[in-house]
Amino acid sequence: MPLWAAFGDSISIPIFNTKSFAITNKNRRGRLFCSTVAVSDSDDKKSRVVYESLRVLEWDKLCHSVSSFARTSLGREATLTQLWSINQTYQDSLRLLDETNAAIEMQKHGSCSLDLTGVDLSLVKSAIREVRRASPLRPNEALAVVALLQFSETLQLSLRAAIKEDADLYIRFMPLTQMIMQLFVNRSLIKSIMQVVDEDGSIKDSASPALKQSRGQVQMLERKLYQLMDMLIRNENNESLFLEVSSIHGRLCIRTGADQLSFKGLLLSSSSGIGSVIEPLSAVPLNDELQQARASVTKAEEDVLLALTEKMQVDLDEIEKMLNGIIQLDVVNARATYSLSFGGTSPNIFLPQDMKRSLTHEPVTSKVSSSEREWTIYLPKAYHPLLLQQHKQKTQQAWKDLESANTELRRRKLYGGNAARKGEKDTNLSPSEMQVSALELAHPVPIDIFIARKTRVLVITGPNTGGKTICLKTVGLAVMMAKSGLHILSSEYAKVPWFDSVFADIGDEQSLSQSLSTFSGHLKQIG
Question: Cα–Cα distance between 60 and 58 in angstroms, integer?
Fold first, then answer.
């Protein structure tokens, strides 16, 4: 396998091996080189090297940025897992890009919302776990299942309505069309849950005759106990006594600061340590009945929830499949939202050894000139994604600061009258306005990276802090983004090869203690 090297303050990028793409930078005087290396070690060692290479490229930061666009915690976890997968095939990458493109089409059309803000997928996952163990569902878990089923049904209805108006959307939204239509919606389960669980998470009295009877018994006994306590308190002759009804471990008692009372009772411990708590002897039988009635309520509620568990068990596999499908939709939507947020372009990816494939997969509607078809890598006006993200965040914060300054000035003028000086606007807004203007002028500069098919090695030269590493990382991240189903942050049509692995070694790995030259140190680092 060939190696390439360059001398001076430079970076070299090899072109190209299907199995691996290695990029190396030694940012000091001396040699900088880059090599394409065939990996013959064990898969575990290869994985460690690949993950370390991705860390060097700051792929982890990009992954967290993309995952932040997911609407659910499970969606964010799944997004990170998918982006960190290093075992995708070329066909996997094409499928991921198709999904992202379809989600972008959906967002632009606006007819099918993938907003999962009101759906708690973690509770649904918990519900599935409880049902598998044949344990009673909790009311909030049951409501979460209903929310998921209703979301899926609404999504399907919206998609069908959109396709009915425009049949072409069926193809434009593929493969998401198929994913959404395959979601399982059990309307019978929705009805069963809503019949017994209220919107606030409480179980309805009408859920079962036993529950209704037990709750009625509890209410009757509580009413009798409060009447008894009220009578005992009113019968006390000393009006200066402080007496109040209190509940201790579910038993109604009287709290008092007096040492002696006219009625007999049991002295109970006070959790606060202030005063005495007395359970009147006349209240003991009623309290015993109340405890039994409450236990009956608990048992009746468990029976109701256990019945829901049994109904959910019938289609549990389909419900779990639907949950996983919705999580996957959240992941796809996160990739699409990220791409839209930063103005990405869907890349054309191809296998380097099959150059004809790059022609057959180019979009029919794209305006690709014949000269552009001669490039192995074609990245016009490409941005480093982390630099663009950082600039966007700073700009958004600057606009917020400016709006806050405007609001404060309006408040002072409103309440200060003539106290607002003529030059106050300049004094208060000038720093914020200057910050916004400075950030708008300091927009990250895109780079053009065009590598012809016959090019075997590309050398980038320049002084320190000249942007060589940024250029190198931009290429590495662009390749990984395309492989992972993300749009490349390029303002125009982009084309990159697909690689099984991406290796990066940025920094001086010379090791005198191990008798390694800088060149050998770099080779050792990447495998």
Answer: 5
Nearest-angstrom CA–CA distance, 5 and 32:
7
Strand partners, 81: none
Identify the CA nearest to 4 among candidates 329, 471, 201, 14: 14
Q: Is residue 371 located within the same domain as residue 459? A: yes
Q: Please provide residue 174's backbone torsions phi and psi, each rounded to the nearest 5 degrees.
A: -70, 145
Q: What is the longest distance spanned by two Cα atoms in the chain?
A: 108
Per-residue pLDDT of the chain (527 residues), as tens digits, is 322 333 334 444 555 444 555 555 544 433 333 333 344 445 666 678 888 888 888 999 999 999 999 999 999 999 999 999 888 899 999 999 999 999 999 999 888 888 888 899 999 999 999 999 999 999 999 999 999 999 999 999 999 999 999 898 889 999 999 999 999 899 999 999 999 999 998 999 999 999 999 999 999 999 999 999 888 888 776 665 677 888 888 888 887 766 666 677 787 766 555 667 888 898 899 999 999 999 999 999 999 999 999 999 999 999 999 999 999 999 999 999 999 999 889 999 888 766 544 444 555 444 555 445 578 888 899 888 988 888 777 777 766 766 776 676 677 777 765 545 555 554 555 666 666 666 666 677 888 888 888 887 777 777 776 678 888 888 889 999 999 999 999 888 888 888 888 887 776 443 333 444 445 555 555 55
User: Are 32 and 178 in the same domain?
Assistant: no
Based on the fold, state whether residues 459 and 437 are members of the same structural domain.
no
- Number of separate domains in the chain: 4
Q: Are residues 426 and 457 in the same domain?
A: no
Tell me if 374 is assigned to some domain: yes
485 and 465, same structural domain? Answer: yes
The whole-model pTM stands at 0.78
Q: Domain of residue 181: give its range.
A: 109-208+304-331
Question: Same domain for 294 and 438?
Answer: no
293/320 same-domain check: no
User: Half-sphere exposure of 288 toward its Cβ, with a 13 Å CA cutoff?
Assistant: 6
DSSP string, 437-485: HHHHHTPPPPEEEEEETT--EEEEE--TTSSHHHHHHHHHHHHHHHHTT
Tell the burial category of 82 from Cβ atoms under 10 Å away from its Cβ (0-12, 13-18, 19+): buried
Q: How many helices (H) and strands (E) does the chain have?
A: 17, 14
